[in-house]
């Protein structure tokens, strides 16, 4: 049973460029959340997707956008990259967010983005 | 506002000794609490969670955590540390009734170093 997968593993971009990161959830999961982990910090919630819609959003600008596909996979897009966007981007998947007793988020290995 | 504090940046322990990694939280209502571990260049791995019930929660790799409502704490423990336990540990909280969504709020992390 494959866990959460993310691609690419590493990425180097320059300021002003745009980037797309991809995530495939764990089998049986229908909810995908994205987190940003800056160096030396804990992950910070960007947004969550369920049934192809953004359900909740953290304190991130509109430059950060996402999408969820019918097969539950997801993309994170960041426009007009800034140096401060350099971080590890983590995708987490889970099942049935309305049943909290069953809910656990499982994380992928992350995509490390470096903006020069 | 919901928050998590991990008061120690680093914890050092000798192999075979018990270990404790501290976590305190601030949230309205009854919290849902999680511990994750992160190895170098890897994503987060789920260790254990407290949702309700017994205050002592047992998780993966021999770890356990004790929920203390009066002290608003959820400390991670292990009776006998292994060198392979050396990693970065994150405590996270999810507030109940947050629209039914499962946004996690993480602490800054505690680096555990187990010495032979």
Give a verbal description of the structure.
The complex is a heterodimer of chains A (116) and B (116). Chain A has strands spanning 5-7, 10-13, 19-24, 31-37, 44-50, 53-57, 64-68, 74-78, 87-94, 106-107, 111-115. Chain A has 116 residues and is mainly β. In chain A, the strands form 2 sheets. In chain A, strands 2, 4, 5, 6, 9, 10 and 11 form a 7-stranded mixed β-sheet that branches. In chain A, strands 1-3-8-7 form a 4-stranded antiparallel β-sheet, with no helix packed on it. The radius of gyration of chain A is 14 Å and the shape is globular. The termini of chain A are far apart. Chain B has 116 residues and is an all-beta fold. Chain B starts with a strand and ends with a strand. In chain B, the strands form 3 sheets. In chain B, strands 2, 5, 6, 10, 11 and 12 form a 6-stranded mixed β-sheet that branches. A 4-stranded antiparallel β-sheet of chain B has the order 3-9-8-7, with no helix packed on it. In chain B, strands 1-4 form a two-stranded antiparallel sheet. In chain B, strand 7 and strand 8 (64-68) form a beta hairpin. The chains are: A mainly beta (116), B mainly beta (116). At the A-B interface, strand 4, strand 5, strand 9 and strand 10 of A face strand 5, strand 6, strand 10 and strand 11 of B.
What is the residue-mean pLDDT of chain B, rounded to a whole number? 92
End-to-end Cα distance of chain A: 37 Å
Main β sheet profile of chain B = 6 strands, mixed
Low-confidence stretches of chain B: none
Share of helical residues of chain A: under 10%
Series of secondary-structure elements of chain A, N-terminal to C-terminal: EEEEEEEEEEE
Low-confidence stretches of chain A: none
């Amino acid at each position: 049973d494959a866990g959460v997968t993310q691609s690419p593993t590493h990425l180097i971009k320059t300021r002003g460029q745009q980037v797309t990161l991809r995530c495939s959830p764990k089998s049986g999961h229908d909810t995908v959340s994205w987190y940003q982990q800056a160096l030396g910090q804990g992950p910070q919630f960007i947004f969550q997707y369920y049934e192809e819609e953004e359900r909740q959003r953290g304190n991130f600008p509109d430059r950060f956008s996402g999408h969820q596909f019918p097969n539950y996979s997801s993309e994170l897009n960041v426009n007009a990259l800034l140096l401060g966007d350099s971080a590890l981007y983590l995708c987490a998947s889970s099942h049935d967010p309305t049943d909290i007793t069953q809910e656990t988020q499982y994380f992928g290995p992350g995509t490390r983005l470096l903006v020069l | 506002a919901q928050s998590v504090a991990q008061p120690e940046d680093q914890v050092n322990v000798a192999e075979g000794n018990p270990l404790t990694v501290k976590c305190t939280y601030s949230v309205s209502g009854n919290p849902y609490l999680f511990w994750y571990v992160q190895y170098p260049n890897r994503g987060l791995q789920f260790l254990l969670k407290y949702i309700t019930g017994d205050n002592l929660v047992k998780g993966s790799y021999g770890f356990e955590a004790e929920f203390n409502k009066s002290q608003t704490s959820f400390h991670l423990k292990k009776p006998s540390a292994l060198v392979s336990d050396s990693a970065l540990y994150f405590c996270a909280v999810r507030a109940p009734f947050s629209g039914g969504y499962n946004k996690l709020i993480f602490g800054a992390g505690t680096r555990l170093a187990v010495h032979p």
